[in-house]
Amino acid sequence: MKYRKRPVVIEAFQYDGDMINSSGKPYVPEWAISAVNNNTMYYDGSELFIHTLEGDHHVTVGDYVIQGINGELYPCKPDIFEKTYEAV
């Protein structure tokens, strides 16, 4: 059988190596700040990781960090993100 992904709206941001803009303020959504504060997202040295049910995932510069429909966080490569999602 074939299946189509249901249309759902997610929140995401593209990681640029840190989470601070040029004026020193966070450019990421509040849920990302909360995830860092509760160690769901964490830095190991200068590298960002996300705790997921499948284990810890490395977030590379340019990756999108997605908050799914159940509040779960996961990284997504830019090419996959652009093929899967569109701005609403």
Brief rundown of the structure:
This protein has 88 residues and is an alpha+beta fold.
Write the layout of secondary structure elements.
Elements (H helix, E strand, L loop, with lengths): L10 E4 L15 H8 L3 E4 L2 E6 L2 E5 L4 E4 L5 E4 L1 H7 L4
Antiparallel strand pairs: 1-5, 2-3, 3-4, 5-6
The residue ranges in which pLDDT falls below 50 over 5 or more consecutive positions are: none
Number of helices: 2
Mean pLDDT figure: 94
Distance between the termini: 30 Å
Task: Specify the biggest β-sheet.
Answer: 3 strands, antiparallel
**Any idea what the shape is?**
globular
Classify the helix fraction into a percent range: 10-25%
What proportion strand? 25-35%
Q: Strands of the largest sheet, in order across it?
A: 1-5-6
- List SSEs in N-to-C order: EHEEEEEH
Rg over CA atoms: 14 Å
Q: How many beta strands in the DSSP annotation?
A: 6
Description:
The radius of gyration is 14 Å and the shape is globular. The protein is 17% helix and 31% strand. The chain has helices at 30-37, 78-84; strands at residues 11-14, 41-44, 47-52, 55-59, 64-67, 73-76. The mean pLDDT is 94. Strand 2 and strand 3 (47-52) form a beta hairpin. Strands 1-5-6 form a 3-stranded antiparallel β-sheet. A 3-stranded antiparallel β-sheet has the order 2-3-4. The chain has 2 helices and 6 strands, in the order βαβββββα.
